[in-house]
Amino acid sequence: MLPGTRRLLITWATLMALTLLSMISAQLDQDSWQALPLWSAGLVIAATGFKAQRLLMVYLNLRAATPAWKGTFVGLVVLTLALIAGGYLVARLTG
Amino acid sequence: MKERALPNPGWGPLSALPGNPLMWVLILSEMLVFSAFFALYAAERVAATALFNASQRELDPLLGGLNTLVLLTSGLFVALAVEAVSAGRIRRTRQWLGASMALGVLFGVIKGIEYAGKFAVGITPETNAFFGFYYGLTAFHFAHVLFGLALLALVTWRTSIENVETAAAFWHMVDLIWILLYPLLYLLR
């Protein structure tokens, strides 16, 4: 069963809002370039994870699949984000 | 879930996936490939944090963000094309596909402006490790955008539910990779 126009539009609005939230959270308006506060970086990663989850479930309609497949794809996204966040944190703490 | 209730009966473990099962295999493999590159990037960043931070300042996160908005909207149009083709509205399907391709081209134009700006000041893939990753990852992704555009054009010509669903899944995968790529390269500093 397809997601339907209403659900697609809500998802699109959510994705756009989360993208803008990420950009604001990353403080792109700063004149001087600085490392992000950790809460800001955390917000960027959390927003990215939620965006990827919504895209998988609604745009790609993975919600119609079994829990095992949903878990596989969402798990892979979580693993990827953990790699990104881990690398970023280690660089921040040791750099 | 009973076998007959599955979206793709007869495909074994892939039966439970919506759309073309082989496209899901491709999506999974592409996600693994990009995740491996992201892990490499993370490791290199740890080894050369100051260089990566200094190089990252040369990127324009607003252009990257704009491209994210463009690609996500293009994804919406493709999903609406799937809804339209499922309802048997072929003309409307082609209109959504056309709008989606137009935004895909816009993504390419913005990316081209970004690349041109970098090359104009002498920043190339050989400049340093960060820009090697920047050009490598974004160009590899852009190759997927071009292939996705070709697929969308093909299914605009040969419009059927299965064809549009398959091309749409590929296009959403391109979206998904960019969603992960954008914060990695542009935002996290």
Automatic annotation (TrEMBL), chain A:
Keywords: Membrane, Transmembrane, Transmembrane helix
Highest taxon of source: Bacteria
Transmembrane segments: 36-60, 72-91
Protein's UniProt name: Cytochrome C oxidase subunit IV
TrEMBL record, chain B:
TM ranges: 21-42, 62-84, 96-113, 133-157, 169-188
One Pfam family hit: COX3
Main location: membrane
Entry membrane topology: Multi-pass membrane protein
Parts forming coiled coils: none
CDD domains in the record: NorE_like
GO MF: cytochrome-c oxidase activity
Keyword annotations: Membrane, Transmembrane, Transmembrane helix
Record GO biological process: aerobic electron transport chain
Presence of the UniProt keyword Transmembrane in the record: yes
Domain Heme-copper oxidase subunit III family profile, residue spans: 23-189
One GO CC annotation: plasma membrane
Subcellular location: Cell membrane; Membrane
Recorded family membership: Belongs to the cytochrome c oxidase subunit 3 family.
Name of this chain's protein: Nitric oxide reductase NorE protein
